[in-house]
Amino acid sequence: MTATHGVTRRAPAGADPVAAVAGTAGRSRGRRDGWRDGWRGWWSLGLVVVAWTVATSAGAVAPQVLPGPAAVARAGAELVTAGTLLPALAVSVGRLAVGALLGTGLGLALGLLAGLTRTGHDVVDRPVQAVRAVPFTALTPLLVVWCGLGETPKVLLVVIATVVPVYVATVQGVQGVDPRLRELAVAQHLGRGATLRRVVLPGALPSVLAGVRLALGTGWVAVIVAEQVATDRGVGALLADARTWARTDVVLLCVALYAVLGLLTDALIRATEQHALRWRTPPAHPCLPKEPA
Amino acid sequence: MGDALLEVRDMHLALPAPGGPRSVLAGADLAVPRGAFTCVVGPSGCGKSTLLGVVAGLRRPDRGAVLLDGRDVTGTTGHAAWMAQDDLLLEWRTVLDNVALGLQVQGVRRREARARVRDLLDEFGLAGHVDARPSELSGGLRQRAALARTVAQGRELLLLDEPFGALDALTRLHLQRWLAATWAAHRWTVVMVTHDVREAVTLADEVVRLSGQPAQIAARYRVDEPHPRHPAGLGPATRRVEQDVLTGLGVLGAPDDAPVPVP
Ligand SMILES: Nc1ncnc2c1ncn2[C@@H]1O[C@H](COP(=O)(O)OP(=O)(O)O)[C@@H](O)[C@H]1O
Ligand SMILES: [Mg+2]
Asked: Which domain of life is it from (chain B) (predicted)?
């Protein structure tokens, strides 16, 4: 190969004028933009809080109906000192984490089975679609009858809620991988395992992650529903107690906690997406063209 | 024919079509000497890519054989490096990791694979783009990366399916020159499909013209002019071959008063 360098080194140097110009700059800028975009839109939520503060402190709304942010924060501090808030949070987060982990794993496995093999699709797809057709909230009584009032029915509900979106996204992702890449895999001598690991899975990842994000959203809904039905511990139990004692501030606190937990989970997945899919050019924000003059 | 590296014998293949299986290859024969550059031309959709895919072992023919050095390799891969019509780069891998893909799964240690690929990328003018993603590359660079990935497999026989087909005319001329020089240095045996007759006669030792569907070998043309050739400065004999190929394809030679046939 050493003898060839005289010829080949020279040829490419002048060969492609584009080569010299097209650099890889702009990547760090892109990351900074991404960070800023991450905070975009938060001001509108801040505005809601401001409006809430103004409305309640001006006395326009009775504090028994809608306590102000300060009162809610006080209620939070009170529960923290009483030692009830953090354990409750941990219980709820734990339910989501365990359920979503199991549900995502199951959805991924079933999705791969259905997406990769015809037989797998025949066996798996109909039953999952049937589960999908039933709102998972309708399964709560059944789960309670089957599993009692412990942790099992709650986690199971989260599993059911998360498995479907992950399954659908995985099937879609796997089937969306460019079929011509299969030929590439054959030509490059990749076996089944290597093709799955290096071509199919990375190709399906964007879709799978979108599915996981969706699943975590419904997963939280499942946690909330489950905690409404059989309340012993967790944020749902706090909520039930507050309802009993007509503590609107604590009720609001619990609702806000659910919101924050949902937003945090979403941010976590977004960050994962941004890291794992950094090879993708971010989609442009949809916008309408200017009106022609 | 005795010293042919690659021999294709009596290749037949039917592919599924709306009205039932349709014959795409109907008795194609090829003999490619070691170190020779062969170009395959033919009407669009006649079966050029299919033929190349069968030679690469991506699909098994209904009848016929592919021989490498006299060894029957029909329906198997590993004897040749194939490059698709589209570059088929994996968008989530860097240029380096795309090119190293084959080596990695062959069990070459990561460090060594990367070192080898780095040398190759240097030679292919991609040294400055080692860690770039494919989406950051121009069309010409993507094509070079795909070519580097093909070459990285370390096979003597390269099967290239319209490697420059999607490029603009200027980039294509650059890459043709570059490929000719690289080929001259390495002396790979190349079978290249192209729809550009000028490209074919500039690069090839032999041009093979396929008939329309189902594809058979319609004609072979030797190009004896020594390499390197330049598309703008081809000798009279080579120009004549170009005319012959174009005539064979039905593009040239219609009498002035006859209606030009619609392909
Ligand atoms: N996977 C396939 N299944 C069915 N028909 C195919 C397939 N691939 C190609 N064909 C058909 O075979 C014919 C030859 O295709 P191809 O080899 O790609 O032509 P070319 O490369 O010469 O333009 C075309 O008519 C095409 O529609
Ligand atoms: Mg083709």
From this structure: Bacteria
